[in-house]
């Protein structure tokens, strides 16, 4: 169950109303001492459901993740995508600058597949989409990268590769699809899988650098699975809005299922929010990334009332900070997560993929495990 806090509520009264301990309510919802609540805050009341189907659960994490957060989260995962490996124009693999050994070990001990995430990071750790063109248009470099990936996966205990290339040039679209198909062929021959991240398109001819290089239909055939990156409508430099408004997410899913088998589609889910200073000025205002629990703590601190936008199916609030600056915050709570899980069920998608796991959102995992067979 999900309960929304009203004026006069406190932890003890809510726990008593649902016949649970205050300690459980506090733990499940990560309510910070002295256990103050925000009006409009959504609380998860642990319950049992008739779970009728299983899904695949994946999450991305950097090698500097807190080990306690990783340990708790692994219980709910099938795949752990380690972010990120890069490559050179010659197809030489570049490992993360921080060792990922402990993540691979922890995943394997938990029965979770560690996934090598590949992005166009150069030797300086900077995103460089020129590397995409250099590799996918050069058969020698492409084959070299594939063979280096296969060696890394097989020697280090990975279960597969996730290809997370963004800003692919329209002219490179077909060669990128060919690269993914060849990578999948080589990985599958050796018992490994390949997934590919897709920018959130709503039609095949959608213009824009994020979209033109991604062939949904072709990549749906080429890869074993895909992740719809259904987040970042609200982002660092956007106007204040939901990170993943469900009406926009639905549009992407409705298009994706016309091009890709539903058994290959994972829905991307954001595990974060943004705090915008106001007034918003395009090209100037920069939002701060925050965790979902941090958002609640901000609302409590400044006495803000949380509002749930029914169209976006996302919570938000406004507050004035200690210096007098107005802010607008959009984040995720168990209500917005429930809406996304419902979309997974409605379209019978393969599963979900979280960006990212660096902040613990315990109520989300409890809701997920009560909704699906994990």
Write out key terms for the chains shown.
374 residues; alpha/beta; 12 helices; globular
Average per-residue pLDDT, rounded, comes to 97
Provide the structure class: alpha/beta
End-to-end separation: 19 Å
Helix content: 25-40%
Globally, the shape reads globular
Strand content: 15-25%
Q: Helix and strand succession?
A: EHHEEHEEHEHHEHEHEHEEEHEEEHEH
Q: Major sheet: order of its strands? A: 3-4-6-7-8-9-10-16
Give Rg in angstroms.
Answer: 21 Å
Unreliable parts: none
Number of strands: 16
What's the tally of helices?
A: 12
| Major sheet details | 8 strands, parallel, barrel
Explain this structure to me?
The longest helix has 18 residues, at 139-156. By secondary structure, the protein is of the alpha/beta class. It is globular. The protein contains twelve helices and 16 strands.
